[in-house]
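quick one
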Amino acid sequence: MFNLILFGPPGSGKGTQSERLIEKYGLIHLSTGNILREEITRQTKLGLEAKSLMDKGQLVPDSVVIGMIEAALDTNPQAKGFLFDGFPRTVAQAEALDELLKRKNSQIHSFIALQVSREELVSRLLNRGKTSGRSDDTNEEIIRARLIEYENKTAPVAGYYETQGKLEHIKGEGSIDQIFDALCSRIDAKQ
Ligand code: B4P
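structure w/ BIS(adenosine)-5'-tetraphosphate:
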């Protein structure tokens, strides 16, 4: 099994690169953002609660996303490995993930953080908002609130994996192909 966390602020390219990585390495893509948006589309109770937080640029409660990941791990017992995209976003989520994987006699093998400047992130997200229909991408104030939430609650997750000797950084600016190649060489070195 090979389990990878692709980490970085909103707009750093996690979703974009994940699409390519799962194809190349045959991993199951677990994006908590995508799962939450599916709940919103289906107008479930969870989706409606999540939408009100996401539209303010805030994180959804840990218990909700941990439960979603647990269910996704359980429904894919034969997986070659998982690519976690947008999860964990808090240290509590990281601890819970370690515990869930331990129960399956597995662990995180690689943690790669994409580094992108703040102004580039804002510009990418505003640009995506023009076509994606995502309500959290259309307003600059909400985008900046998401970046502050990231600095306060999510950035410390990198330190958690650093103490495990797993943290690696990659420059997330440049062409999508260049970044993909850099990611693949780090992943290949781990397999
Ligand atoms: P996510 O769906 O994870 O959204 P994101 O961080 O905005 O997207 P991502 O980072 O994947 O986008 P990408 O860079 O690929 O989360 C949305 C919300 O859900 C959160 O704010 C939170 O409320 C909630 N949530 C999700 N997970 C949670 C959790 N675990 N706990 C609590 N709450 C949670 O793409 C951005 C844009 O950049 C695209 O338009 C892309 O085309 C462009 N781009 C990508 N690479 C580029 C490059 N190299 N050059 C130029 N543009 C590029």
